[in-house]
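>> Question from a student workshop board

For tomorrow's exercise we were told to take the sequence and the ligand below, predict the bound structure, and bring the output to class. My setup keeps failing. Could a helper post the expected result so I can at least see what it should look like? The ligand is 5'-O-[(L-methionyl)-sulphamoyl]adenosine.
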Amino acid sequence: MGRQVWYITTPIYYPDDSLHVGHAYTTVAADALARFHRLLGDDVLFVTGTDEHGQKIQKKADQAGKVPLEFVTPIVEWIRGSLWKRLGISYDDFIRTTEERHYRVVQTIFQKLLDQGDIYKGVYEGWYCLPDESYWTESKLIDGKCPDCGRPVERVQQESYFFRLGRYQSQLHDYIEAHPDFIQPPSRRNEMLNFIDAGLEDLSISRTGVSWGIPVPGDPDHVIYVWFDALTNYITAAGYLQDPAKFEMVWPANVHLVGKEIVRFHTVIWPVILMALGLPLPHRVFGHGWLLIGQAKMGKSLGNAVDPIQLLDRYGVDPVRHYLLREVPFGADGSYTEDALILRTNVDLANDLGNLLSRTTAMINRFSGGVVPAFIAGEDDGVLSGEVASVHREVKVAMDQLAISDALTSIFRLVGRANKYIEEQKPWELAKTGQTTRLNNVLYGLWETLRVLSVLLTPFLLETPGKIRHQLGLDEPVKNYDEAMFGFKAAGVAIQRQAALFPRLERPKREADIGDDSKTPEITPEDFQKLDFRVGTVRSCEVVDGADRLLKLTVFDGSRERTIVSGIRQHYQPDQLVGQQVVLVANLKPVKLRGILSEGMLLAGSQGDLLSLVAPLDRLPEGARVK
Ligand code: MSP
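>> Workshop helper replied:
Here is what the output should look like for this input. Compare the format with yours to find the bug.
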C-alpha cells in the first residue's frame, strides 16, 4: 500500500446562477477541515467543482440564448476565480463535469456496468419532476406532487436505461449497519436505513430529449442521468482510470461533505455504483444542516439568497468565515442574520481576542520594555499552560468528529480564560509591588497563549493568525499543529504593537432595544406566536461594573433561573426589583453583554425619559405564558 492521502470533497455546485452564502457554508467548512489536516501533517486532497450538465442548466442556457457551455463558463470562472478566491478556499483540484477526463470516466463505468448486467435498457413509465430531474412512481408522490420539492410532476413514458439498485439493497444495508461512521450525523443514518429497508427500486439513469449531458456509449439518443455523472466526479478527481498510483493513494475518500438534502444520493446511489464497480466506499458522508432565513432554507428558488461577495466587501474574510464556522453547531440547521454576524465579530474577534492581544502587548511594552521576559517554570501556576493543553486536545477531538463549531468554542474559551487571568493576576499590581518573577511569568504566559491561539486559529481564519503573530514579533508562518503547546523559547522576542485587530462593527439599532421608538413592520399572528413571553420573578439584581445603563438580574422563570442583562439602571435601584414579577421574552437567542451571557429580555414600556417594567396586575405562577 502506498501513502494514504486525506481526501475531502464538497458537492459540486450547479453553475446555473451565482452561488450564495449557503454554498459558501459547505465550502468554508470543507476548507477548514482541509487546512486542519494539512496542519496535522496529512497529505490532503481537497476537491470542489461544478456540476454542469442536465436539463436544468440546458433550460437556463436556452433562456439566456446561449449554448450551455458558453452559459456556464463565466459562472464557473466567477466561482473559482472570485468567490472561492476571496473566501480563501484552498482546494487542490477544481473539477468541471464538462472536462474530458470526467467524460471518459463516466462513459467507461457506464459501459462496464452495462456489460456486467447492473444496467439494462427498458421502458420507463411514471412521473417526472423537471426541476429535480428525478422520476417518481405513483406511490411515492405526495398529494400528486414531487416528494422532494413539492412541485408539480409530469406523466412520462419513455425508453430508459436502468440501474439495478435493488440488487445491492441488502449489501448496502449490511454495510451501513457495520460502519456506524459511514453516514453522519446518526439521525441521517437512521433516516437512510429506513429508506433502504422500504425497498430500492431500479433507478432510471438515462434521459432522452435532453442533449446537454454525457451520451450513453453507443446510444447517443440517451444522455446519462446528471446525478450518475455528478457523483462520479469524486473518483475522476481521485485519478480513477487515469492515474492508478494516485487513485490507490487517494481512494476511498475520507469525507464527502454535503447538505442534508443530498445525503440520499450520496448514501444510496453512490455506494451502489461503487459496489458495482468493486471499489471501496468513502469513510464518511457527513450531511450538514441548512442556513435558514427565518424558517426557510436560503436558496436561489426562494429568492432569499444572500450574496457572499457583498458580505466579504462589507466585513472582510475572517468575520465571514468565523461566523459561518462558529455560529451553528455543524450538522444542525441555523438561522442566518447579518446582525448575528456583526455580534459574533464584535464579541469574539474585536472584544475577546482583540482585547487580549492589545492588553498583552501593551503590558509587555510597559512592564518589560517591549520584549518577552524569560519564563521561570518552577514559579509558574500552570493555569494557562494547563488550559492550552486541554484546548489542544479538545480541538483535535472536535475536528475528528467534524464538530467544527465546537472546536472554535474551545478556542474561544481559551481566549476567555486568558482575559480572566489578566483580571486575576493584575500585572499592574505585580509591577507596583515589585513581584518581578511572577509578573514575568504572567506576561510570558499571555504572550505564549496568544502564540498558541495563532496556531489554533490557522485552519479557520485567514488573515488573523498572521496579524497576531506579527504583533507578537513572530514572522514565521505556522507549520504544525503541535506548535499549539506551551514551551516556545520566547525570551527576548521584541513585540510589534499595532492597531486593534478588529475594529468594532456598528450594529444597526435593534427594534427590540428598550427606548427604541422606531417604526416596526406589520407581523402576522403566526409571527406573534413565535414570541414566548413568560412571567418570572426577580430573585436577585446587581449593577454591572463599568456600564452605567445596565443591571444584571437573576429571574426565575418557573423552571430555572436565568441571567438577564437589562438597560434599566437609570430607572431602577437593584434592590427595588428583587421579588417583583416581570415579563420576559423566553425564547430570545442568548447574547453576551459586557461579557455576561444574557438569556432573555425584560419587557418595558417607555416614552421619552419615562420607563416602566411590564408586570401582571395580579401575581401569577412563574412560567405563565403571556399572550
Ligand atoms: N449539483 C448538486 C450536487 C452534486 S454532488 C455530486 C447540487 N448542487 S447545488 O448547487 O444545488 O448545491 C447544493 C449544496 O449547496 C448543498 O448540498 C449544500 O452543501 C449547499 N447549500 C445550498 N444551500 C444551502 C443552505 N441554505 N444551507 C446550507 N447549505 C446549502 O445539489
